Amino acid sequence: MQVDLADRLHFLARVQNCSRRKLLVWAACAGILYPLRPLTAFAQGGIGYPQTVQVLREGFLSETAAHNRYLEYMTRALAEDYGNIAYLFSSFARSEAIHARNYSRVLQILGVDCTLVQGEFDIGDTRSNLKQAAARELEKIESVYPAYISRLEEEQFAQALLHCRYAWDAHRQHKDKLTQIMNYSGFFMGAVIRKLEDIDFDFFVCQVCGSTLDGQPQGDCPICGSSVDNYNNIERPQPTYASIKYNHSEKE
Ligand SMILES: [Fe+2]
Ligand SMILES: [Fe+2]
User: Fold this and answer.
1) Same domain for 28 and 83?
2) Are residues 163 and 237 in the same domain?
């Protein structure tokens, strides 16, 4: 049985209890917007970008965990009276938070919620935390992020690729700084990180991409190209009630 458009509209008008005129306007709008459907479809749960959504979710969890882990490292370093190393960790924590935020924003554009998961971390003394941090940053640079990017390239969602590349570059900066510290230390890490306390670290983090620089930025961000005004000078963390928990727990 063939039903023409007028019959359909009449039927819909009766069902929805609205005028034929309103329905004609609605149908015209639908006709105009239909060609844009592929552009709007992603706003409904990431339809059309399954790999991108998966990578962004993994990235969000990984960066959130990195943020929390660096805060734990910072607390431990403060408890051990390594103020400079604590400052380094808190600056990296800020950078990781920006990566997590960027991924969550792209997920929002895709119409996907992301859930924060609290994890437990294996925290050692500051010496072993530095080594662990360097190993994790190296793993991200050499294997995790190249894999993310090759998966994202399959679907070419521009904002996801952009923020993933920003984070990859920022992790290189983290790794370079950690390597610099490790090179100081050789086999005598304990003595060397004590000496590091005489150096004046002064960290700046780009609020757009998480770029982390030691020293006043000399121009626009080398990673995302945004204005130097987007760099925040990170404050040095102060010993807090939380930072003495390790001292207490070790004495018990
Ligand atoms: Fe990160
Ligand atoms: Fe930046």
Assistant:
1) no
2) yes
